[in-house]
Recover the amino acids of this structure.
């Protein structure tokens, strides 16, 4: 059994979901600054997540879902997932983002499972609160361990792909650690570095692994 785990925002999807949502409120730059600090490792992920989501209070859930349906896939995302599955990998997405985006897009890509967060809403309006499986900087590493234990997957048979500081915790549990257009803090821990926004470049590495 082999396992491939992908981050979602700026990895499988070209951009940050919360920034697409913030643009609707005219607060994209404010949110982007907080996101950048978190992805550089300069700000605690939980703190950054809750601060950014609070800024979305009042947005209709229907509009959130409309925006999430139009999020752009990363170049080569479908090809990489298809190739991995053809090689017998179970493919999982771990995201500090939101199920409004990860559920439909992961289904479109054919990903086996996704773990992400839930935007709380009341009467169809975002409350500014968030909860879920991926709230902390340690969350991805904890989930990977559980998946490996459940499936009987070893460290050597695990590939992880991410771009930011909150992906560091999952790098500890994979022999193949891919920094995709990543922040320096993640590149330091990677053994595969891809600088272009093209996930097809990962296929050469996958083919080498067999």
């Amino acid at each position: 059994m082999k396992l491939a785990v992908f981050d979602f925002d700026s990895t499988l999807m070209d951009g940050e979901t919360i920034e697409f949502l913030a643009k609707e409120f005219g607060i994209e730059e404010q949110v982007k600054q907080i996101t950048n600090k978190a992805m550089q490792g300069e700000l605690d992920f939980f703190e950054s997540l809750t601060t950014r989501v609070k800024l979305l209070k009042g947005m209709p859930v229907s509009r959130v879902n409309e925006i999430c349906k139009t999020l752009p896939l990363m170049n080569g995302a479908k090809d990489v997932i298809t190739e991995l599955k053809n090689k017998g990998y179970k493919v999982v997405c771990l995201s500090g983002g939101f199920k409004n985006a990860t559920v439909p897009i992961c289904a479109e890509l054919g990903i086996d499972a996704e773990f992400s967060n839930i935007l709380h809403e009341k009467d169809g309006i975002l409350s500014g609160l968030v909860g879920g499986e991926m709230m902390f900087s340690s969350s991805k590493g904890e989930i990977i361990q559980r998946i490996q234990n459940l499936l009987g997957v070893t460290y050597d048979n695990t590939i992880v792909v991410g771009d930011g500081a909150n992906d560091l915790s999952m790098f500890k549990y994979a022999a193949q650690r891919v920094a995709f257009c990543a922040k320096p803090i993640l590149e330091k821990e990677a053994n595969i570095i891809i600088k272009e926004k093209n996930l097809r470049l990962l296929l050469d590495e996958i083919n080498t692994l067999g």
